[in-house]
Design brief:
By secondary structure, the protein is α/β, with parallel strands linked by helices. The protein contains 15 helices and 22 strands. The protein has a 7-stranded mixed sheet, with helices on both faces. It starts with a strand and ends in a 9-residue tail after the last strand.
Length: about 475
């Protein structure tokens, strides 16, 4: 059986990458493009055997990689970034075919960010330090010790960018990695393994194991030799991972779902507010951070809705490889059915469809806005992960904050206002890991990222990433405590 496939002219190996070698499996699973439903190829389907091999390879490679100097680790990460930039067009084409996101976005934003992830953490590693401090004359020195083999489980909505957001700091910290990409989008993780090997990353430091969810997920997350687990995905899966990791007390970083609000006050620049609102259809609504709940002050709600409908109506939905396309397909028939089910149930419960509310041909769902929705309704409380937004109104700041905070999530909030004092007051009261004021999706890797409540556990980014991927050590030295014999 052939072990490579060709995607838009790019060759991709469909086998696992374990211990610096390609490893086949007895079984495969089918990878299908959401653009038009065509089969991209058969992918090696791993199980317990492949997991054991990958963890063993990571365990064996760990002491040497952990002992590698910061300078050398940073050099290798920069070399990986060079490889990403060299193959940027190939990565963009493959990922668009695999997950249906816009090719123009992959070319201009996503893949450059992949390279930046490696460069940022390489540079941050080089500068990482705490100031020593004294306690009754004793010196305290804080250091970061590599933790060990790390399991990284990544989602399908931004496969390579979100994978490298984890891989880069884990490698920089001196850990070895077992990467498990989402089964719906496995291809660019395979290309990353090639790029890392070409950059000189030693065998066993990065391993890629492909497979379906719990078939390999449980084996990875319950393994006693795994020292860190980082997961981005759904709340139910996170609970399963936490239960699996609990017997070993394996530290977890969990970036989970969201039901984030966009608060629009009457003093906001309405054109800006509408721009922010339309942006929530990015990636066909498959963005955990998306502000899917519009909360608009009553006095401007009608005008805001009119302008939004006009702008949203101008969006072009279609083939994501077309430069003119604004919204591509949803990832999988199962996800499309889930999205449609949310909308149908909302309408049955009394919601009014302002725009959209139906499937299009293929795996496309029309950009949708629903109003007349109750705060305790499913469509307001649960994550849809599709191009479906709701609109509610509020009378004052207190009601706006109450509605914004009234879900089990707390990932992000977007706020549109022309009043800096109001922005400060409201921001202080919001439950969210990230608050954007008059902007959206501005991400600086120096800042902490994560969610509150059911939106996650822990923070990553900058020093917070190293705090997670390392065991922090404080060395306390007594004053004049040396016994010199020579």
């Amino acid at each position: 059986m052939a072990h490579t496939i060709t995607v838009a002219g790019v060759s991709v190996d469909t086998r696992h990458w374990i211990g610096g070698q390609r490893v086949a499996s007895a079984e495969t699973f089918t990878d299908v493009s959401p653009i038009d439903g065509r089969v991209l190829g058969e992918i090696a389907r791993g199980g317990v055997g492949e997991v054991e091999a990958a963890v063993a390879a990571a365990r064996e490679a760990f002491p040497s990689w952990a002992a590698t100097t910061r300078t050398e680790r940073a050099r290798v990460l920069h070399a990986i970034a060079d490889g990403v930039e060299k193959r940027l067009e190939e990565l963009a084409i493959v990922e668009t075919n695999d997950n249906g996101a816009l090719l123009r976005s992959h070319r201009r934003g996503v893949m450059p960010r992949v390279a930046h992830n490696f460069r940022f953490f390489a540079d941050w590693l080089s500068a990482l330090e705490h100031e020593d401090f004294e306690t009754r004359g004793h010196t305290n020195h804080v250091s970061w010790d590599p933790a060990g083999p790390s399991v990284l489980i990544t989602p399908w909505n931004a496969p390579l960018m979100l994978a490298t957001w984890k891989v880069a700091p884990a490698l920089a910290a001196g850990n070895t990695v077992i990467l498990k990409p989402a089964e719906w989008t496995p291809l660019t993780a395979s290309l990353l393994a090639d790029i890392a090997a070409e950059a000189g990353l030693p065998a066993g430091v990065l391993n890629v194991v492909q497979g379906y969810g719990s078939e390999i997920g449980d084996a990875l997350t319950s393994h006693p030799d795994v020292r860190r687990i980082s997961f981005t995905g759904s709340v139910p899966t996170a609970k399963r991972i936490a239960a699996s990791a609990a017997p070993n007390l394996t530290p977890l970083s969990l970036e989970l779902g969201g039901k984030s609000p966009l608060l629009v006050f009457a003093d906001a620049d309405l054109d800006l507010a509408v721009d922010l609102a339309v942006e929530q259809y990015d990636n066909a609504g498959q963005v955990c951070l998306a502000a899917t709940r519009f909360l608009v002050e009553e006095s401007v709600a009608e005008e805001f809705t009119r302008r939004f409908v006009e702008r949203a109506g101008a969006l072009k939905q279609g083939d994501p490889r077309d430069e003119a396309t604004d919204i591509g397909p949803n990832i999988h028939p199962r996800q499309l059915e889930k999205i449609d089910g949310f909308v149908r149930r909302a309408v049955e419960a009394g919601a009014r469809v302002v725009i959209g509310g139906h499937r299009e041909e293929g795996q496309y769902y029309a950009p949708t806005l629903l109003t007349d929705v109750a705060q305790d309704s499913e469509i307001v409380q649960e994550e849809v992960f599709g191009p479906v937004l709701t609109l509610q109104t509020f009378a004052d700041e207190d009601e706006a904050v109450r509605l914004a905070n009234d879900t089990r999530f707390g990932l992000a909030t977007t706020l549109a206002t022309g009043d800096t004092e109001r922005a400060a007051r409201v921001t202080e009261r919001l439950v969210a890991g990230t608050v954007w004021v008059n902007c959206f999706f501005v991400r600086d890797l120096r800042a902490p990222f994560g969610g509150s409540r059911h939106s996650g556990v822990g923070r990553e980014g900058g020093t917070w990433s190293f705090d997670f991927y390392c065991d922090l050590k404080n060395t306390v030295t007594a004053p004049n405590g040396w016994n010199n014999h020579g």
